[in-house]
Amino acid sequence: MSDGSDPNAIKDALETAVDAFNEEGHGIPTYEETIDTDDAWKAQLTKGCTLLRAVERIGGDGYYTATIELCFGAIERSIEAYALAEGGDELQDFHDHTYCYDRASELALLSRSTTDELRGLYTENRTDSYYGGKQPTKEQADAMQSLTREIHDHVRDQIREGGVCNC
Hints:
mainly alpha, globular, 6 helices
């Protein structure tokens, strides 16, 4: 397709989305209230809470792909929160989806064997369930939801400054 031949509806919607992210032309922005932006680690932890709450709301409705995707995101946000709060990391250190697992073991949040297994779970299954031809199952979604809740609660309990978590 050549430039200028894209459907106008897509071009208009794209322009609206770019404007929304640039906070242009929509008046006073309506921010997600549950995300605490006082500090980078608080933002990551509360994003983890929000993703987990979304999983809990859609759980049982058959949205297995969405559940698995949101769970991996919640695990990453939770571990990143710990690394930011307790490890001296900067948000820009997290340049890919698996770096957080390295930091979890380096900071003794979880053992090397557990983080290796988490990394394997991510690389072998997240990509296939989301991009590949696999059809996610209820059992996979339920297992990921339980795993995510356990990791998120563990992270929350390990961060010295409490009272931030929304879940």
